[in-house]
């Protein structure tokens, strides 16, 4: 209710400015103890996946809190798990502003942020200082100036650093806003990357005495053969989960905004991401869980993702348009 009153004011601001203002305000509200007064978290049904106990099936997708700066405040909204990042080995500024745009008439968001973040060491510092002890996913990527041939080195270095602090790690190879990143979804490149990561993963599991689940986040702009090949690679390398999907380069439903480059999230992505989930479910035959994300604006969208084969869901753009009430609605419905 409160967010619905504030949203018109927030939407008058530049999207990126509004983003930071909203999160900073949420942090301040949490520090003052006000979040508890306004938050009415729904009680969800727990589930066990990837060796982890999720208090409910609704998570926050990566991208909202890139540097893990708002963990404690976001936890008060009722999420069953929170994913931060994408984080890279070294800090990077991303693309020039403006780089984030709302399309209210389509309940969509266009972003070409360019994986801007403060670097993995800064994220770890924030995670260590947070009181949040729920399920934490850390989403890792490669720096934009890293050659594709050396991509595995960036991912391995990030994995080493975040291993003690994450509940699971997501390997992001699907952002359309990082040059060449989606090339890592091709069979040869993917096989090399996953092979190198799993080799390092086995070493880290022995060092830390625990198995840290690995998830792969893929794009919605894939053909049936590509999805089948990715599913095969996931099973071959023993990856623990797949997140479907990242943002789309399609402009279906927002054709008038075709001049703005970047990935599209929100309502126009819903059907595309659900179609990928459905194809993955057939290819994987229940051998590893699917986390469904993309265009979830209400409980019907989330249930559609579960019906297609997802076990968990994540939201981002829906939170921008609906606010915390969407979290409560989804937790209750699922």
What does this entry look like structurally?
- The chain has 334 residues and is of the alpha/beta class.
- Helices cover 40% and strands 17% of the residues.
- The strands form 3 sheets. The protein has an 8-stranded parallel barrel, surrounded by 4 helices. It has a 3-stranded antiparallel β-sheet with strand order 5-6-11, with no helix packed on it. The protein has a two-stranded antiparallel ribbon with strand order 1-2.
- Helix 8 links the parallel strand 9 (214-218) and strand 10 (241-244).
- Helix 8 crosses helix 9 (270-284).
- The two termini are 21 Å apart.
- The model has no long low-confidence stretch (mean pLDDT 94).
Summarize the structure.
The protein is of the alpha/beta class and 334 residues long. 40% of the residues lie in helices and 17% in strands. α6 (151-162) packs parallel to α7, α8 packs across α9 (270-284) and α9 (270-284) runs parallel beside α10.
